[in-house]
Amino acid sequence: MTSSTIITNNSHARIVEFVSTLFAQHLAYTGMASRVEILNEGGFRSDGRRQFELRSINIDLSQQGHADGSASISHGLTHVLVSVFGPREAKNRSQTIHDRANLNVELSIAAFSTGDRRKRSRGDKRVMEVAGAIKSTFEPVIQTSLYPRSQIDIFVQVIQQDGGVLQACINATTLALISAGIPMVDFVCAISGGVHSTNPFLDLTLIEESDVPNLTIAVMPKTQKVSLVTMETRLHVDRYEEIFRLAIDAGLIIHEEMKAAVLARSKTLMTCIDLGTHGGEEME
């Protein structure tokens, strides 16, 4: 399976995606997910996508408040915002590491992000699992040795959930770290995958996650090394290799979207700098 097999659905009408996903969310939260056909005879999923078709991706690298770097990303209706502060002096000296920077990850999930309106605290098991996965993903990727005895704070906010929360958190964190100018060995691009019967899927929605065995894979596109693999449910070993290969290909596609957003943001900033420089020269 090549990368060309995997496509995004940015050309689809957003209103169709919005309505179909809201319907899927309603079914998932009311216990009716099993009544929805995950893949119909025509090869379409419940939200109208093909098996290997990714949801639309929207990226915003605008500066948020006083953060050193920030980014928001939407995979379909899953929306995540990440703010990065640092490297800076650690507030708690006991967390200081003499030869590298300490990475601190805090995750918050908005109560309105899901249909059940459940408020999750920082001590919630699910919150701690996702925060831990983000930290373990980026610790070997960030060049922390350049900033000894300092701390890098990553604050992740889940605004809306419709499946693929971990992948969105990882992708947004990558972009926020780049925005903050923190050196990394490579991008980290994540995608979720699953299997229904014998049919593999990519970029799962909430209703698909609740109905099929699934995993999330984070890959570094330059070397195609995998920095994270998490499985929420059991996946048959015979299907694992295929999903793994598809997820790596999908990660390369997501990398292109992320790289394009970073380049566009860089060009905008350079234009602003040039205008400011020339404007100052004219005033003189």
Write the layout of secondary structure elements.
Blueprint: H1 14-29, E1 57-60, E2 69-75, E3 78-88, E4 102-109, H2 125-138, E5 151-160, H3 165-179, E6 189-196, E7 199-202, H4 206-209, E8 214-220, E9 225-231, H5 237-283
Parallel strand pairs: 4-5
Antiparallel strand pairs: 1-2, 2-3, 3-5, 6-7, 6-8, 8-9
Helix pairs in contact: 2-3
Main location: cytoplasm
Family: Belongs to the RNase PH family.
Keywords: Cytoplasm, Exosome
Structure description:
With 284 residues, this protein is α+β, with helices and mostly antiparallel strands. It has one domain: 2-Layer Sandwich (Ribosomal Protein S5, domain 2). The protein contains five helices and nine strands. The strands form two sheets. A five-stranded mixed beta sheet has the order 1-2-3-5-4. It has a four-stranded antiparallel beta sheet with strand order 7-6-8-9, sandwiched between helices. It starts with 13 loop residues before the first helix and ends with a helix. The N terminus is likely disordered.
